[in-house]
Amino acid sequence: MFVSSISSLLTNISHYRHANVIKYCNRPFSNVQEMDDELIRRHNEIVGKNDITIHVGDFALSNDIDEIMAIIRKLNGEHIFLGGSHDRWLKHKCHEIWEKKIQDKYIVACHYSMRVWPRSHYGSWLVYGHYHGNLPPLQNQWDVGVDNNNFYPVSFEKLKEIIGNKKAF
To answer: Which of the 8 DSSP states describes residue 60?
Structure first.
């Protein structure tokens, strides 16, 4: 699918309902409800009703589809979910890689980082999660997990700023 009119694409990896991620990633929340509420608030602060958010895996650690759908209903925008390490709630087979051209830039999204990715030799960008900001990105990559981005989704405009200002390796 070719997407040319979207300038508000946002990417995200959140770990809703995952109590242990607070400890593992030293998140500044006292419990999972406080974390979920704040992640929803920050999401809605920058994501509009017509924006598209690509969740690059690990959306939620829960098998309770009603609980997860309640979170999704609270989030602004349309949502595309890629499979991650904790997404057993996605009962159907979901995509592992998402690729689209936005404006003049080809974007590839995946839960995991890669050394090379589709069209990387032509300057495409890779957004990924899984590493919670602990894996230094290569050229034209960015970890879009909330732990790496002050607990906010990353917009296409922010990606242009981040990746456009990175030095080549």
So the answer is: B
Query: Which contiguous run of DSSP H or E holds residue 63?
Result: none
Query: Does an H or E element contain 52, and which?
Result: strand 52-56
**In this structure, what token pair is assigned to residue 140?**
């034209």
Q: Cα(130)–Cα(58) distance, rounded to whole angstroms? A: 8
Tally of CB atoms within 10 A around 141: 22
Q: Which tens digits make up the pLDDT trace of 59-70? A: 999 889 999 999
Q: How far apart are CA 44 and CA 26, in angstroms?
A: 23
Please give the domain boundaries of the chain with CATH numbers for all domains.
10-164 (3.60.21.10)
**Per-residue confidence (pLDDT) for residue 93, from 0 to 100:** 66
The type of residue at 157 is: E
Angle value at C-alpha 9, between 136 and 148, nearest 5 degrees: 25
Distance CA 102, CA 142 (A): 16
With beta carbons less than 8 A apart as the criterion, state whether 55 and 39 touch: no
Which region holds residue 49: left if phi is over 0, alpha if psi is between -120 and 50, else beta? alpha
In 10 A of CB 3, how many CB atoms? 13
C-alpha of 48 from chain center: 16
φ/ψ region of 15 (left if φ > 0, alpha if ψ in -120 to 50, else beta) reads left
**The pLDDT of residue 7:** 43
